Amino acid sequence: MKGGYNGLRAKQLSLFLMAVFCTSILIFAWAKSPIFSSLIPPKNRVLKLPPVDDPLEKLEEGFDDLHGVRERIDFQEPEHTTNKNYVTSEAVEEAKEEQLVKEASDLDVASERIDLQEPDHSASNNTFTSGSVTSQETTGKTMEVSHRENSSKITEKTVSPLTFASTNISLAGRENNMLATGGENQDCNYAKGKWITDENRPLYSGLGCKEWLSPMWSCRLTQRTDFEYEKLRWQPKDCEMQEFTSSNFLRRMQGKTLAFIGDSLGRQQFQSLMCMVSGGKERHDVLDVGSEFGFVKAHRNARPDGWAFRFRSTNSTILYYWSATLCDLEPLDINNPNTDVAMHLDRPPAFLRQFLSKFDVVVLNTGHHWNRGKLNANRWVMHVGGKPNTNRKLLDMGGAKNFTIYSIVHWLNSELPKYPGLKAFYRSISPRHFFNGEWNTGGTCDNTSPRSGELEVLQDESIDPQAAGSVKGTNVKLLDITALSQLRDEGHMSRYSIKATPGVQDCLHWCLPGVPDTWNELLFAQI
């Protein structure tokens, strides 16, 4: 019995020793053989997942599809890394100019689809006198957009952006630009809405605002008897617009300066705002500060180049400077009163360059002086790059106008970082309403009643593609007043002008109080 027990233990011990021996062999082989060792990844090895598409890149490509080829024009200096083949600054400027002209020309061609193009008055049968150029601004762009066609879409090419920024633009930057310029993400499109009757209108009396309102634009001083147009108020479709009051405006503009720079339609907007803020009443607390901005009537001039007034209670200043084309004008011979004048298409007015730092809000506009007759009568000669223009594309009025608008808006945008508090606007074109002819060929605007059933703007896009395209991609905002003004052909001076000429009607300028008051309400809502 005892021997059997010892034999069993000997067998178990032998099996244990064999197991230890085999395990030792396996461990030794594992350490030495690459076949076995490759089965376990090292500790410092990172396991990679299969590659996937970058969602941010896909989203940016979506923006590219929306806006066309992304940032087609790069206006930064090219890199010169080989053989020291440096491009001169003049060549770079020429390249910039060519790109800008091409973009403006493309936009101009697209805009012709809705007949927003300036008529060419260079034909021999269209003659102009100097008086008609300086005193009456009744020629310019014909707005033939039907009220029923206002809901039609404008192609993306029509309002394609022109950017002076680098192509390396972040997605966040694009979103910020759209918000700043009234793009797709804005909270309210003030240009979309309808005209409604409001018995609390107008905001001031055309008879009472004698201190600020030119008599030639006060229809209450004419033979006109129908003033129903004064009772209309603009109501945006998707939002409530804060009611304009003098106290609200002055409080918001306390210690600040608002500047209008443009043609006589800009002057009308300036006079409208002065009447709105003063309530159309005489104010003894308003100072004439025109001398601070060089507004002194020059010899032989009928009026100064501008006006500036300050409300002492809040130190708020409102001014207007006359610049019909937004170009810098430079006499070629200062000693010759009949000299030609260089009209620099790529250079903002000297006044704007000099006083921009003093402004808190600036509103620019141009449009109705861009015709051959006015340029010839004023002896304005187009210049680009400091030299007489030789670019054939800019000899066309539409191309030259678009080039100037793009140039000035983008110059202004480049200045904004220097003045963080400055708010800049470019106002879209104010439409004309000549029917059955032009201003000098029997054109009329005899309607005196608001159009029934045609007082609503439904489309999102501006019907002024040049203005919309110029501010695209910038921090300059579009003050879009074209479509809402297009509905108001009864609001012009018409044949009721004080110094009416038989057979001539003013279907360009507006009666005040009137449509320009609404432009200022939209402006107030955005400052």
From TrEMBL:
Primary place of residence? membrane
What subcellular compartments does it reside in?
Membrane
Q: Where is the composition biased (Basic and acidic residues)?
A: 144-155
Q: At the top level of its lineage, which domain of life is listed?
A: Eukaryota
> What keywords tag this UniProt record?
Membrane, Signal-anchor, Transmembrane, Transmembrane helix
- Classification via Pfam families: PC-Esterase (PF13839), PMR5N (PF14416)
How does this protein sit in the membrane?
Single-pass membrane protein
> Residue spans with biased composition (Polar residues)?
122-141
The GO terms describing molecular function are: O-acetyltransferase activity
Task: Tell me if Nucleotidyltransferase is a UniProt keyword of this record.
Answer: no
Q: Say if the entry is tagged with keyword Phosphoprotein.
A: no
Q: Which Gene Ontology cellular component terms are annotated?
A: Golgi apparatus; membrane
Which family does the record assign?
Belongs to the PC-esterase family. TBL subfamily.
- Could you tell me what this protein is called? Trichome birefringence-like
